[in-house]
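Example record for the data management plan.
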Amino acid sequence: MIKSKKLASAIAVACAMSLPTVVSADQVENLHKEERAIHDAAVKSQKRVDSYFEQSIDLLSEYRQVVDETDNLRMYNDHVQKLVNNQEKLIASLQGQIDSIEDTKKGVVPLMYKMLDSLEKFIELDIPIEVETRKERVARIRELMSEPNITTSERYRQVLEAYQIENDYGSAMSAYQGKLNDITVDMVHIGRVALLAQSLDLKNSWVWDNTARDWVKLGEEYNKPVTKVIRMAKKQIAPDLLEVPVFAAESAE
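Corresponding structural encoding:
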């Protein structure tokens, strides 16, 4: 009995001495758990911070890109606005010119009719170089004056072209066939200095007297020179100096 009591007391003392040790181990384990939890939370927080930082870097880059694009757009808009302003000025100028076209037409159209009248009178007073062709040209232009599909600028061009052709007669030498007193003849003009004619058999020659407004028959000695002039005008022989009778053309007024 005494031994049993002593053993029970020893066991009780041993349990009492071991209890604080168990409690201390649980506390340490709890501390470790809390440390791990804190560490895990810190890791997660750091990850969130890193993520937020990366997002802020991306947002900053996007912001800078938007700012650059905004500046570029502002500069481009300023450039386009300048173009629009200049175009508006150009449109206003063109509109002013368009508005003045009618006034210009009112002055140009009567001028063209006067030019045609003067051209007809000039042809009548000039030496008769290809008279029918020249008269037909003027008549054709008169018809164009009343054509609704022909622009004023085209009519004016035709009139100026007719004047240019008339001017070219003064410096050209050309030969062509025509009629003289119902006789078919070769005619040749040397500018407006001389107009000559010769029968096809080469036996008769004439020169135009613009003062008398008539043909003057030449002597036989002029037949060969006139033939030579005609052949030169047709480019059948090389140009050469000739002696032929001439009557200077009078200026038309």
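Summary line stored alongside the record: Helices lie at 2-125, 131-145, 152-169, 223-233.
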